[in-house]
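Each letter names a residue; the fold follows as tokens. Both lines appear below:
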Amino acid sequence: MRHPGRPAVRHGVTAAVVALLLALVLGGLFGCGARGAPPDGRRATAPAQIPRSPSTGPQRRAAPKPARPWNVHPASVAALGDSITRGFDACDPLADCPEVSWATGSRAGVGSLSSRLPVGTAGWNLAESGARVGGLTAQARAAAAHRPAMVTVLIGANDACTASVAAMTPVARFRADFTAALAYLHRVLPDTQILVASIPDLRRLWSVGRTNVLGRQIWKLGLCPSMLKDAEARTPAADARRTAVRDRVIAYNAAMGGACARLPRCRYDNGAVFGYRFTTHDLSRWDWFHPNATGEAKLAALLAGVAGFRTAK
């Protein structure tokens, strides 16, 4: 193609030389091969744009701060949650028994998380029997006052154990409340690590406990009606109700796992507590619902493994 104002280039050697010179000049300036491709045939990519400062010139992007390793010897532990962490009905009827708590219990043989740590490790059990996830941020505020090195969370059973399926906490509300509590902890205590335990499988609780005559009678007093009401009924409606409760617990666990995954100092048990196949030997003889001291010890061993803590003595 002839360019306006430029004489035509003669064919032959002169044209070949001009073409060669043009190729060398273009190649030297742009480092490109035919049709703008790099000489090695790979697709060209635009160079990264480095922001410039009028006074200091090119600015280099700061290297990301390395994640702080998980500490298997935290100096203090604060436990948040509900009646499971409080050891309710584990020792005496209708009473908390925090000394057998899986998280911060002091009784020999339980092997709580805090007891597996070096002597002198501080611990605070701030869980509340009957608590729902909507109250978790208040517990987190109480924990922040102690500035613990680690916070444990086991909550959610009361959000599913309601008068009916319709009364269970909606998943969106559960997710929002749980995420807000963890976000608060991360904002106020950015160096504190958080261990999140999944909610136990309530349908398994019904499955193993319904074989006990005394347990069924106690459940009739109104313990977790959404799951345990009419324990002997095997009608399609009863089975559908229990499945709905279990599905809600699974959704709650997924919400907690997702919220935890977004924080650099949070570790979720990946459903270990939910999947644990407990038996009636692990349940309180007062209500056939809460863990007894044996059940608390098994929870402690399970979650100590998640946290990477040493084996109990």
